[in-house]
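hey can u check if this looks right to u? its 274 residues, i copy pasted from the old doc so theres a chance i mangled smth
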Amino acid sequence: MGTVLPSTNLIHPEDQLPREIKGKLLRFAKLRRRDELVSQRIQTHKLIRALWTGATSVRRKDPDFLNLLMTLGWTNETENGKGRDSTIIWRNTRLANYVACSPDCLAESISNKFSGLQVKAAASLLTARTGITNYYHPLRPRTIVVVEENPRVIAAIFRKVASSRVSTDRKIHFAFRKSSELGAIRGTSLLNGLSPALACLDPMLRFPILNARTRPLRRALRLQCSPSGAIEYCDLIGKLGISNSLDLDAFALWYSRDTYKRRRKKLGRAPDHH
């Protein structure tokens, strides 16, 4: 067993967080939509974990299964809620195609193929809103191909992150190293597409989601897109109501939207110089 890599703990303690971040964390804690944002992520976690824990060791190496789990972390829902219902249909169609059944008997088929997943629980998940990241559509086909062509590497990443015996630091270092070996997707890290599923696979719910939506918050904290930066990003967990990586991602999404709106409002009020 390898040496556990220590966190460098560069993020300030809760009482020393940057004023802007602390203020927005406090606002987010009182946000009406907070429960909605977090709930959708929790449902995604439940679905992905249920499929992974109920899968055989052979299935966990199957590229089609790995791609299924990855895409279950995606959504087609836009910021204004458009695409909410179509995302559920899209997700259930992918599941039905994977287990080779009609949508009418999907809950029973999933329950039969994945041990420990009862029909009632499966049916509940199939009606729930799931999906975390509206992953950039032009990147999706190539990302899926990379997983199809490299199932052993992807399976190793999934297996490591899904373990309850591996520290978060080691999971992050391993995921960065192995995914970088597969190259970028049109200049974008493979982790952008993988990390929503990885966050849901992590039984400790500490593996961070890393993508364009979390970038503004990470930049505000002066964190690089690197293993050490991701580890420090996780250090927000446990501060001011952020209890896990899904809470953190919901906050990062809200922070990104709020920052963008405020900048647009500020620019709109600025004098027009020619």
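The radius of gyration is 19 Å.
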